[in-house]
Amino acid sequence: MPEKTLIKDIMVTDVAAATLPGSRDEVLSILKDKKVSGVPVLKDNRVVGIVSRSNLLSNPEEEQIALLMTRDPIKVKPEDNIKKAAQYLIDYGFRRLPVVDVDGRLEGMITVADIVASMAALQLDDPISKYLGRRGIGPVWCETPLPLVAKNMELAHIKAVPVLNSELDLVGIISDRDIISASVIEDSLEMSDMSAGSDDDEWTWESMRDTLSIYYSVSRIKVPDVPVKEVMVTDLIKASSNMSVSECALKMKRNRVDQVPVVDATVHSLAC
């Protein structure tokens, strides 16, 4: 990674942001329409938080951005070296960082994809097998219900997994982007029993039990109960474990992806 490459040289400047106060639906719309993994949150034109797909999936009933967002996210400046951004992304497992000026105002975003694209022009001959991540869950079966896959990914803190069929062939990849794109907002009416007495309490009037039952509306993000094969990406861009870092980065850049399955005769992993 070239020492003189600055974040401002590769960051994205056309960034959609949410503002406080705001609603979950605003963020969900940006994530789906822009196909991004996170949305910076502004207050008085300064970055105060960031909402990711993981935040939404982990808190499906929360509607307020202020309670969904990760507060005071790690930020970088345009004049910082991209090495600093890459180190943050690796150390904290993030996929994006807001870029701000000296007053905290949003200047852009830098993502894993931006870092990978900058590596494509370098002569990095090490095989990608040296850098494959081994944490998290392994491949999932194509018939696994999507809500179960989403929960496993949330608990393992990973963003994508390979998908196998019954013959153990790699047939797809599922990411949190695909899960969010398939999700819908579901409204329901629920009841909370606030009565002081029970059916066994002979001194409580029936009318009091009725008047103390409170009905309220709940809006939540619902992951559809379908097999993962109905949502997964099947047009796969693959890499082999002996491919060089720069060759893999170039392939990812050309196909505009930031994660690819790495395959050999027996292994299905992810390069990010």
Could you walk me through the main structural features you see in this protein, from its secondary elements to its overall organization?
- It is a single chain.
- The strands form five sheets. Strands 1-2-3-4 form a four-stranded mixed beta sheet. Strands 7-8-9 form a three-stranded mixed beta sheet. A three-stranded mixed beta sheet has the order 12-13-14.
- α7 links the parallel β7 and β8.
- The chain starts with 6 loop residues before the first helix and ends with a strand.
- α6 packs across α10.
- It is flat, with a radius of gyration of 23 Å.
- The chain has 272 residues and is an alpha/beta fold.
- Helices cover 29% and strands 26% of the residues.
- The protein is built from ten helices and 14 strands.
| pLDDT averaged residue by residue | 81
Number of contiguous helices: 10
**Spatial strand sequence of the major β-sheet:** 1-2-3-4
CA-to-CA gap between the ends?
16 Å
Q: Give a short account of the largest sheet.
A: 4 strands, mixed
Q: In percent terms, what proportion of residues is strand? A: 25-35%
User: How many beta-strand elements?
Assistant: 14
Q: Can you tell me the residue ranges where pLDDT is under 50 for at least 5 consecutive residues?
A: none
Radius of gyration: 23 Å
- N-to-C series of helices and strands: HEHEEHHEHEEHEHEEHEHEEHEE
Percent in helix: 25-40%
Instruction: Tell me, briefly, the overall form.
Output: flat
Q: What structural category do the secondary elements indicate? A: alpha/beta
